[in-house]
Amino acid sequence: MMITSCNRPDHNADETEDAHEAEHQDIVMLSTEQAEVAGITLGKLERKQLSGTIKVNGVLDVPPQQLISISTPMGGFIRNTSLLQGSKVKKGEVIATIENLEFIQLQQDYLEAKSQFELTQADYERQLALAKENVNSQKTIQQSKTAYITWQARYKGLREKLKTLNFDMAGVEAGNFTNAIRLYSPIHGYVTEVNVNIGKFVSPADVLFEIVDTEHLHAELIIFEKDVAKVKIGQNVRFTLANESEEREATVYLIGREISPDRTIRIHCHIKTEDTEMLPGMYLSALVETGGALVPALPNEAIIDYQGSKFIFVSVAEHTEEEARPGENETTEDPHHAFQMVGITPGISELGYTEVSLPDSLVDADVVVKGAYALLSSMRNTEEGGHHHH
Predict the structure, then answer these.
(1) Are 345 and 358 in contact (CB under 8 A)?
(2) What values do phi and psi take at 322, rounded to 5?
(3) Against a cut of 0.70, is the pTM above it?
């Protein structure tokens, strides 16, 4: 079988020779007959669904609106709390009782304001009635109105304050005072932080507890920019928490738009089943099943191993002197075919196909899908045997 090397010095102008050699050192030339004997078949890069997985790290997190900090509206001593880190709480459940003797004073002030408001209201209404008969002076009406408005404001203000402190208003109005207020959980969730102990004095500035609605716990994955194209909303994610081997599942819900300085993107995943063991801030490692992604792929036999790297052969237009000087040396019966060896980085491999990323210039190229090894051996023979090899 005759192989013609493309580094043929014959007919070439001297000044183009070096460039020509450098440019075509990975090129093999075959005649049509040789190509047939070698079983060379050309094909194109195809788009295939190759299920693959991307290995990533991440952390459990909650949206800000699902993390509630509990503090007391007024200072006091913690009388009791049953909360521990990790406790489950229901919405409306009592989570702590806070004691302060000032609460008694507040309730007394409220009752006084209520009765004064009722008295001044009645007096003002009486003065208005008398005014119709011109019995009283304008000054008396004005004084009565001022007293009524003052006590009305005080009464309403104290009533709101007691409501905010969760007092039982019917009980207070019946004279049943209490020196303690209750704090209730505003959401269903889990306690992630407890900063108090019984007997501790707490003020409104202190965060006593943090409660997280873990129904909205999500996995925040950190994915490298190069892999983002493979990630699609709805894909399955399998993950394990840092300290366990049990595998859990999530789905890709949101893909971040911001690329961080280390060229990563955050992916927000919804966790399929709620779990008491999971708390925000836990680290996890995950596999994103990118199976649904269509990727450019070639049959495995198109890819050759050579000196530890992977290559393919691409059919290239022949830039030789036959084309340069039409009519001279042209052999229509036996045209030559040129194939260039191109280094590639393979991706996922499955069912006889391997994912291949090619530069844009080669996306539509004719790739040797059969006979690539025959071309490789031709090329090596050519290199060993100089310019012409029989």
Answers:
(1) no
(2) -60, -40
(3) no
